[in-house]
Amino acid sequence: MEDIARAAGVSPMTVSNAFQQPAKVRAETRERIYAAADALGYVPNRVAGNLASGRSRFVGAIVPSLRNSNFAGMVQGLQERLEALGHELLLANADTAERQVGAARVFLGRRVSGLVLTGTEHPPGLGAMLRAARLPVVETFSVDGPFIDMAVGFSNYAASRALMALVIEQGYQHVGFAGYAPRDMRFRERQRGFQDALAEAGLRNDLLFFGPETLGFSGGRHALDHLLGIEPRLQALVCVTDIFAVGALFECQRKGWSVPGRFAVVGYGDYEIAAEVPPGLTTVQTRARIIGATAADLLVARGEQRAVPDPIRDIGYQIVRRGSL
Amino acid sequence: MEDIARAAGVSPMTVSNAFQQPAKVRAETRERIYAAADALGYVPNRVAGNLASGRSRFVGAIVPSLRNSNFAGMVQGLQERLEALGHELLLANADTAERQVGAARVFLGRRVSGLVLTGTEHPPGLGAMLRAARLPVVETFSVDGPFIDMAVGFSNYAASRALMALVIEQGYQHVGFAGYAPRDMRFRERQRGFQDALAEAGLRNDLLFFGPETLGFSGGRHALDHLLGIEPRLQALVCVTDIFAVGALFECQRKGWSVPGRFAVVGYGDYEIAAEVPPGLTTVQTRARIIGATAADLLVARGEQRAVPDPIRDIGYQIVRRGSL
DNA sequence: CTGAAAGCGCTTACAG
DNA sequence: CTGAAAGCGCTTACAG
């Protein structure tokens, strides 16, 4: 900055103003400064800026996986909105509980102005750490607290019930559930919706499979094999994720089973593949992009000390009916 | 830091040493400091630290998409290796050329110690900007320069030739190519391998389809439709990505075509789905994780002013043979 | 509209 | 093994 101040024949102060508060600098001076900055390939040092101002205008998002998820949609929503609001977005990948804490520490150390967390099940101590730092935090894809701070999502229970209403209405009697072993609140609520719906319909509701969260498409295959071993009359599989559901569809194809004639499958998430895989996957659309945009709004509002009237935002879901049930 | 110095009855300096160079502080003093830090929920301010030391020990990676890619594998490799080397990793998502430049500016502004770029086609000016900043940069998934600085990948041309050798050996005569319109060097090399191989075998090599890069699974469907319109005898489709290939497989299923009897498909990337989709996708495994780990090594070495003997690393590829051809 | 002074929370290089 | 001084590159609050 010193260099460009010299080149433009002004003080460093004026250079800073030209970038931060252009209105305070005469147009002519401003142009001279911009020209000098360009010529020198100057990129303002945000590290120094953040330290001096105590603000960072940058939010962090911790995503549990980059693979097979609709976190991509959330990230897109976050990014678009933050960009519009003049903030930056940086991501950290955290596939284990330890890495999740590590990522939070990284962001805290760099003094982010806000943090987005995915899901609601976090390692012990994470919430306390974040609260102690008084950092604005948004948890996503759920409205079932308790939350560390704010949340944007939808009712996983309600969505699950809506999906099950369809399954039951179609007359399926022997229905299985394919879930994850490390169940966070989102997955538990989906399972609860599954079990309550079947119980209320007077149907068996204990055909459950829980695989490790590292399982991708193969989870659907394992679930199907496992549940078929318990109940050979199994007619339908409700999956905690579209990825599991597509895996199950693949397994049906291998067995030569027609879908939904011989067997029905439903998923969760409405990933791109849900619309492409034959015969189309019936699933729950989670509006990931809106979740991201809303999270951005909450974080920025909080960062500017504005009151956030409704810190738990339910943005709903939608059932998407396709060929698989 | 001031606070914890007071609480532990030492100077701030000693606190800093306890965290940065534990060996320089007596064990007893150190314990006192750690206890105080814990009690106060102290998270060292890296912003101040970076500014003071001029080092950041943090690398940035710009990924073009979070969806359907094996960048996830690269990120995993990067993360594991950087963690071991005591560095932090932060990601930026950039799905357009402008966002790519924006992300680079964000990282530059925060004075990263190194940058990982995906692919080799970048907006004009990006290379100049990065070079002007004298920032260590690694481009990935290719060894076909020119590069901004360093690179880790494999020969897309060689991989494509190896795959085509298989296709031709199986006797397929009418073979199409499904690629991306915004072709960066990686995709161009794959296409060149495709065309050269067919030409050398005396076969037609102009059955090409190029879709926008936003196309996911549906790209395979579009490619198939388009090329079939040009050449109804089409027997096989070579895809620039497993995602396209799976989309093509879905389309075959919809048409009731047997694979590879009636139609053959090959992909690129060996994503998880390649092994799961029936009848298994023949593809090129790109060793994304090793690419990430190697990129981390290069960046850290360069950051520590160590000489990097071979800044363009070819880590090879592998053809994975499955049921689709 | 422009600028001199102080300070953000650390680290560096050095002295004790 | 411990600490007082200077400085990293900005911004803030103020004066001119």
From TrEMBL, chains A, B:
Keywords: DNA-binding, Transcription, Transcription regulation. It comes from the Bacteria. SMART domains: HTH_LACI. CDD domains: HTH_LacI, PBP1_GntR. Coiled coil: none annotated. One of its GO terms (molecular function) is transcription cis-regulatory region binding. Gene3D superfamilies: 3.40.50.2300, lambda repressor-like DNA-binding domains (1.10.260.40). Residues 1-53 form the HTH lacI-type domain. PANTHER family: LACI-RELATED TRANSCRIPTIONAL REPRESSOR, TRANSCRIPTIONAL REGULATOR. This is HTH lacI-type domain-containing protein. It comes from Methylobacterium tarhaniae. The lineage of its organism: Bacteria, Pseudomonadati, Pseudomonadota, Alphaproteobacteria, Hyphomicrobiales.
